[in-house]
């Protein structure tokens, strides 16, 4: 068996067309999950009544079960729920017309929210209590102190963890192919199936994933460098 080097480039050109979907399946859930993560983290830190146990259960469930299960449950279960609600309340919703990518995005967003909430929570906890006391001393409210003092420091310290989650979800997006959502891995599988050159096709897909990962790690390094310089009072 020999590797068809020219075909790797041919496969690369076909597979790269699915990159926008892969980026959507990575970035959108992380952005939406970030908002969920902040809310859940604050609820757990301040132990908000009624919501505290729900937040704990949410984080425990989505971190304690595989993401592929989340996708499958929402992909098969959510339409059933919508059909029942539509039938009962005469909403006229046709779930067969809802794009598959929406179900995948919902599943990934819920999973991302649970992971990011832990990162944000640990970042907030790592900030010294003296920071909050100093904010109170200059007349800030708890909300103002959290937005202007605590969260920026917590998020800055969590850049490496955010990078790890991004890379993890970039790779996790490949699961979407199991529900017929074509992304980079799905495109590689299709190209390989047509030409029966699976090794070459997945080498091309690996190069794409690797390239994006290197780019993200480079951006993360620059951000960390800027933050470190700022915290030390210098300019990089």
TrEMBL record:
Q: What is this protein called?
A: Amino acid ABC transporter permease
InterPro entries hit by this protein: AA_ABC_transptr_permease_3TM, ArtM/GltK/GlnP/TcyL/YhdX-like, MetI-like, MetI-like_sf
User: Which species is this UniProt entry from?
Assistant: Neobacillus driksii
Q: Which family does it belong to?
A: Belongs to the binding-protein-dependent transport system permease family.
**Matches recorded under SUPFAM superfamilies:** MetI-like
Which Pfam families did the record assign? BPD_transp_1 (PF00528)
- Transmembrane regions: 20-46, 58-78, 98-116, 201-223
Q: Where is the ABC transmembrane type-1 domain?
A: 19-220
Chief location of this protein within or outside the cell: membrane
Q: Which UniProt keywords apply?
A: Cell membrane, Membrane, Transmembrane, Transmembrane helix, Transport
The record gives the membrane topology as: Multi-pass membrane protein
Q: Where in the cell is it found?
A: Cell membrane
């Amino acid at each position: 068996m020999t590797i068809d080097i020219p075909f790797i480039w041919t496969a690369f050109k076909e597979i790269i067309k699915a990159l926008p979907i892969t980026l959507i399946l990575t970035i959108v859930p992380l952005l939406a999950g970030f908002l969920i993560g902040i809310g859940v983290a604050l609820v757990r830190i301040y132990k908000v009544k009624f919501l505290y146990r729900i937040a704990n259960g949410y984080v425990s469930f989505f971190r304690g079960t595989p993401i592929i299960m989340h996708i499958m449950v929402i992909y098969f279960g959510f339409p059933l729920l919508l059909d029942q609600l539509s039938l009962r309340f005469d909403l006229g919703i046709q779930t067969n017309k809802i794009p598959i990518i929406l179900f995948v995005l919902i599943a990934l967003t819920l999973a991302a929210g649970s992971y990011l909430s832990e990162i944000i929570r640990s970042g907030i906890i790592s900030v010294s209590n003296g920071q909050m006391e100093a904010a109170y001393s200059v007349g800030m409210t708890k909300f103002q102190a959290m937005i202007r003092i605590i969260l920026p420091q917590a998020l800055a310290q969590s850049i490496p963890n955010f990078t790890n989650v991004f890379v993890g979800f970039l790779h996790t997006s490949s699961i979407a192919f199991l529900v017929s959502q074509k992304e980079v891995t799905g495109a590689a599988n299709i190209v390989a199936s047509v030409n029966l050159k699976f090794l070459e096709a997945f080498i091309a897909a690996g190069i794409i994933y690797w390239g994006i990962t290197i780019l993200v790690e480079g951006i993360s390094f620059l951000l960390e460098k800027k933050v470190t310089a700022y915290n030390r009072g210098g300019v990089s």
